[in-house]
């Protein structure tokens, strides 16, 4: 298989590459059920908003086309991302959010044919390597008390069940469970109301 190259994109470049990234987004979840399949139009609408956030950063993986992507931005200082966390928010996490030192890994995706090659790991490492933040946050689909075992790194064919195992293997810790917008993926912050789904919140304090 051809070598995979990583590229960091500026805010402007991310907007220019939005269609290619959206193609990866849809294909990355093609094995999900019809009800869970990610919506291209919804993703593009979220991306348009996300590129405006403070600290937005994106890294893509290329090999004769885009095969993976990771991006994120600063968690808003107002703390509005956290209200529906079912467990009490740790004091240090609340403080880091208020001081603008928390970063949200909003999206991480790799095409099915390119999984199990360490691409997801490389994307996250490149995205976070120059990050000036003391806390990184991500969310993953929550399936109650189901077994968290799965194929580490990129998720194999069952994207849903591998997220927890992958975050754990990367040294992240599970902080709790939150309610988020249905179909919004890791980019969405917690929200209550009709159509909401439950997601696990994972955190990592970058190594210095």
Q: In what order do the strands lie side by side in the largest sheet?
A: 1-2-3-4-5-7-6
Structural class determined from secondary elements: alpha+beta
Q: What's the number of helices? A: 6
Oligomer: single chain
The coarse overall form would be globular
- N-to-C SSE series? EHHHEEHEHEHEE
Beta strands, count: 7
Q: In terms of per-residue confidence, which ranges show pLDDT below 50 for 5 or more consecutive residues?
A: 145-160, 182-195
Helical fraction equals 25-40%
Largest sheet: 7 strands, mixed
Quick take:
This protein has 208 residues and is α+β, with helices and mostly antiparallel strands. It is built from six helices and seven strands, in the order E-H-H-H-E-E-H-E-H-E-H-E-E. The protein has helices spanning 11-16, 18-28, 40-50, 91-98, 119-128, 159-169, and strands spanning 5-9, 57-62, 66-74, 102-110, 135-141, 173-181, 196-204.
Structural overview:
A seven-stranded mixed sheet has the order 1-2-3-4-5-7-6, sandwiched between helices. The protein has helices at residues 11-16, 18-28, 40-50, 91-98, 119-128, 159-169; strands spanning 5-9, 57-62, 66-74, 102-110, 135-141, 173-181, 196-204. The longest helix is centred in the N-terminal third of the chain and has 11 residues, at 18-28. α2 (18-28) packs across α3. It is built from six helices and seven strands; from the N terminus they run βαααββαβαβαββ.
